[in-house]
Amino acid sequence: MAVQPQPQMPKVWRTETKPHKFCPGCGHPLVLKAIGEAIEELVIEERVVFGCDIGCSLLAWDFFNLDSIQTHHGRTTPVITGVKRANPDIIGIAYMGDGGGYAIGSQHLVNAATRNEKITVFLVNNTQYGMTGGQMAPTTLPGQKTETSPYGRDPETTGYPTLGPEMIAAITGPNAYVARGTVSNLRQLKRMVKRALENQMEGRGFSFVEALSLCPTNWGTNAEETWHWLEEDMAKYFKVGELKVPGEAKEG
Amino acid sequence: MAQKPIEGEKKVFMTGNEAVAWAALAAGADIMYGYPITPQNEIMHYWTRLAPKYGRKFLQTEDEISAGFTAVGGVLAGRRAFTATAGPGNILMQESMCMAEMMRLPTVLVVTQRGGPSTATVIYSQQEVTMTCYGGNGEGFRIVYSTAGQQDLFDYTLKAFDVAWKYRFPTFVLGDGYQAKMREPLVIYDPEVRGVTITPSEPYMAKSGKPGVDRPPTHLRNTYNMEEELLAAVNELANAYAQMAPQVVESQEFETEDAEVVILAHGVVSRAAQGAVKVLRSQGYRVGHFRPITLRPFPDEAIKRVAEKSRRLFLVESSQAQFRKLVTDSLYGVSTPLTSYLKPGEGITVDEVVAEVKKLF
How many CB atoms lie within 10 A of CB B16? Predict the structure, then answer.
């Protein structure tokens, strides 16, 4: 009997660089799959510049058959802003983690959103710094143990998890698209990714999707615990849904 | 919309910042990304007034980190992109300029040096030499022009856009607050009428054709997993830089032929040195002046030649020996004695150079 092929992957995935370099059980490839499929359906492969940050997101630097630039920690937003400002025909994507977007690159994210830069930011939230070994991030949940909060995050001394899409929705104009998806609902995540890209293609303005994601390696969880953490614990703080949709009814 | 920013040649009376803006326009710069800092501001002010008339763009960013990285983005999109800064802003731009070094991205950065350390002053200074030449966690794979006045600022800003795209190394025009704010007569010109060509830019990203189908995708990274991989990448940069250096290196000599004492100075201090040579020669002193124009790459051969045939070297700079470090590194093995006159962050006049040099006779 012939070996069953793997599940269908987007053609924009570069086969020469697969298998990819993410850990088993990582959420990044799921987010990247949603992005790849959306790009393919929108037929914008020739126009995309894909920028990825430092941290685990950098492992996406050769992931796609797309022109890609791996930048510095937090600096993907300005690089893609610069690309887009110089050539508005390009569809600029900035791909980053929660540390890159909400900590070291937060001034860039806030100001790009305020200026209504016509770029798309995809931010993967896995509640800690993955690449550097599991330190506390702006998104770490209260009580969550990480390498730099070994007794659990104490909101008294380190605050509460950053609510990124809520912040972006508050500071953007009516032409921005803002949503939070999750890798536990890939169909919805892909719809959000597509709408975010369409917002840029139509020249409306800034678009931002946070994707709730998985890091069993640093969470130290088995499969069941991993999904419980995503769907139960993270869901308590991070509400999935569309926060801002230009001219249309919101989902979720 | 006017076709050319400058038709033919024009004699003008301008500040250095104005000269830089006109040079960037004449060079065909497409976009400036900038963040306010003194004494660089008027480069942006003139650019924001002039650029729209010639279809050029401007973005005011949230800080200098962003100005540097957006300039990197502009280059990736295939446009002649530049920015300008000083002092603490130069510190913040070192991050993006390191990335430009690693990826061979021809950014152009105009530095109007200010006093340091820290916020300090905004006038006369040469205290950003080390940072501009070797800043960041890099190896100094950059081109740095040290200008001595308004004409230089125009000529070398123009040249910066050419050599940056020709050799694909980040390129710096190193002036200072004094040149930035002072007015001098100069000639601005359309590069074409002088036969000056500016290397065309081209996109790194989003070239025509479907990536992975019609052409390989462009995948640029600055992260490496293995030591050997990194060493190979850095060796390649070092080789390319060494090959480029003789084409780019520039220096100037004033009456060095029979000079007993040679004054070593760069940038705005070179003006005091040039003035001192005139005065001292008129009084019968055999004094010359050597001025490196490129600090990176440094004119090693030319300075060695001059140093070897002179009796004594007199080095003068507006910094606590940042320029001297470049000189002594370059002159290793040359035994000509060297006297230094260091005034970090303070102006240097012809009179004091004359007085100091006379002590050596």
Answer: 33
Q: Determine whether B178 is exposed, middle or buried from the number of CB atoms within 10 Å of its CB (0-12, 13-18, 19+).
A: buried
Q: H helices then E strands: how many in chain A? A: 10, 9
Sheet strands side by side (includes B338-342):
B251-254, B287-292, B261-264, B312-317, B338-342
Residue A2 is predicted with a pLDDT of 57
Give the confidence band of B306 by pLDDT, cuts at 50, 70, 90: very high
- Annotate B207-263 with DSSP letters as a single string: -SS-BTTTBPPPEE----SSHHHHHHHHHHHHHHHHHHHHHH--EEEES-TT-SEEE
* Closest of B130, B132, B125 to residue B109, by C-alpha: B132
- B123 DSSP assignment: S
Contact B71 A82 (CB under 8 A): yes
pLDDT for A10:
86
Give the CATH number of domain A19-244; options: 3.40.50.970, 3.10.150.10, 3.40.50.150, 2.120.10.30: 3.40.50.970
What distance in Å separates residue A91's CA from the closest CA in chain B? 9
| Model pLDDT, residue B3 | 79
pLDDT tens for chain A, 252 residues: list them: 555 556 778 889 999 999 999 999 999 999 999 999 999 999 999 999 999 999 999 999 999 999 999 999 999 999 999 999 999 999 999 999 999 999 999 999 999 999 999 999 999 999 999 999 999 999 999 999 999 999 999 999 999 999 999 999 999 999 999 999 999 999 999 999 999 999 999 999 999 999 999 999 999 999 999 999 999 999 999 999 999 999 866 776
CA dist B117 and B120 (Å) reads 6
Fold category of B9-194 in CATH: Rossmann fold (3.40.50)
Tell me which architecture the domain covering B251-358 has in CATH. 3-Layer(aba) Sandwich (3.40)
Token pair 């000269």: residue: B19
Structural domain boundaries of chain B? 9-194, 251-358
Bridge-partner residues for A180, per DSSP?
A210, A241
Whole-number Cα distances in Å, B119 to B37, B61, B269: 11, 20, 22
Q: What is the pLDDT of residues B202-224, one digit of tens each?
A: 999 999 999 999 999 999 999 99
Mutation to test the A interface, candidates B30, B219, B220, B226, most A Cβ within 10 Å: B219
CB-closest option in B65, B77, B213 to A75: B65
Point out the residue among A70, A84, A85 whose CB comes nearest to the CB of B220: A70
Partners of B31 on chain A (C-beta within 8 Å) are 85-86
Q: What was the pLDDT predicted at B178? A: 96
Contacts of B299 (CB under 8 A, 6+ apart): B249, B250, B251, B292, B293, B330
Q: Map residue A116 onto helix, strand or coil.
A: coil
CB pairs under 8 A between A and B: 143
Average pLDDT of the segment spanning B111-131: 96
Q: How far is B90 from chain A (nearest CA, A)?
A: 17
Q: Do A67 and B218 touch (CB under 8 A)?
A: yes
Q: CA B93, B204, B78 angle in degrees (round to 5)?
A: 70
